[in-house]
Amino acid sequence: MPCYEIDGLKPVIHPTAFVHPDAVLIGDVIVGPHCYVAPLASLRGDFGRIVLEAGSNVQDTCVMHGFPGTDTVVEEDGHVGHGAVLHGCRIGKNALIGMNAVVMDNAVVGEASIVAACAFVKAGMQIPARQLVAGMPAKVVRELSDQEIAWKSDGTRTYQELTERCHATLKPCAPLTEMEPGRERLRFDDSVVPLVDLKKNA
């Protein structure tokens, strides 16, 4: 995978973590146990430190960076959706950052909070625990329900399981030229559904 040292600092990746070969890690990057880093994510520790704590995930095309001397941190079981940008901020334990959201410098997302897709969290914003945050600029909308937090935790577990699946079965291959008869589908339990479907069926 593209890992680069700078000024003598090399990325650190725990053996149980999975970092996709097409992700890029530069410099002072610490990836903890059971983390997942998706293709095309960029974790650039050439100014400040980038930290993924145990069980967290950073999905496709995410960017993590910060100003000199700052830490950009995703705490334990943090979940960062596709295309999000984290800059010099802290994402609390079991929090979720939605797709294409931006979280700016010195912002803190509280434990088990959810930042909605495409939200813009301003520099310095302090989000309490268990809150739904949405908008541009982001505002606290309401407290999250136990059902919503459980849904988030289930989703994060699927990424922790994906880490293991990737270690076990992911490998380069040549594509087939046509679909095989009776092609198998990937199998998951019924808990892995969009939140909107979960609420509809509740």
Entry keywords:
202 residues, alpha/beta, UDP N-Acetylglucosamine Acyltransferase, domain 1, twelve-stranded parallel β-sheet, 20 strands, Transf_Hexapept/Carb_Anhydrase, PaaY
Could you give the topology of this structure?
Elements: E1 3-4, E2 12-13, E3 18-19, E4 24-31, E5 36-37, E6 42-52, E7 57-58, E8 63-65, E9 71-74, E10 79-80, E11 85-87, E12 90-91, E13 96-97, E14 102-103, E15 108-109, E16 114-115, E17 120-121, E18 126-127, E19 131-134, E20 139-143, H1 146-169, H2 195-200
Parallel strand pairs: 1-4, 2-4, 3-5, 4-6, 5-7, 6-8, 6-9, 7-10, 8-11, 9-12, 10-13, 11-14, 12-15, 13-16, 14-17, 15-18, 16-19
Antiparallel strand pairs: 19-20
Q: What's the gist of this structure?
A:
This protein is an alpha/beta fold and 202 residues long.
Provide structural commentary.
The protein has a domain at 3-143: Hexapeptide repeat proteins (UDP N-Acetylglucosamine Acyltransferase, domain 1). It has helices spanning 146-169, 195-200; strands at 3-4, 12-13, 18-19, 24-31, 36-37, 42-52, 57-58, 63-65, 71-74, 79-80, 85-87, 90-91, 96-97, 102-103, 108-109, 114-115, 120-121, 126-127, 131-134, 139-143. 15% of the residues lie in helices and 32% in strands. The longest helix is centred in the last third of the chain and has 24 residues, at 146-169. It comes from Denitromonas halophila. InterPro entries: Hexapep, PaaY, Transf_Hexapept/Carb_Anhydrase, Trimer_LpxA-like_sf.
